[in-house]
Design a protein that fits this description.
- InterPro entries: DUF2783 (IPR021233).
- This protein is about 70% helix and about 0% strand.
- By secondary structure, the chain is mainly α.
- It has a domain of about 40 residues.
- The longest helix has 19 residues.
- The protein is globular and about 40 Å long.
Length: about 70
């Protein structure tokens, strides 16, 4: 069974961060929320495995508690 990859796995994290922040630049809060929702659904579709997605949801929910 695939597991959620929690170790750094980016080929270029700085480029990803730059692209993500550029995507949100000059957008309203509502536009940014819609973009984030679409991005989440695209990446969830790419992952596809329900157990991995549920593990990611669980980890994301804990992030605010740390």
């Amino acid at each position: 069974m695939p597991r959620l990859e929690l170790n750094p796995n980016f080929t270029d994290p700085d480029a990803f961060y730059a692209a993500l922040t550029a995507l949100h630049r000059d957008r309203s809060e509502a536009e940014s929320e819609r973009i984030n929702a679409r991005l989440i659904l695209l990446l969830a579709n790419h992952i596809g495995d329900q157990r991995v997605l549920e593990e990611a949801i669980s980890h994301a929910g804990l992030a605010g508690d740390k």
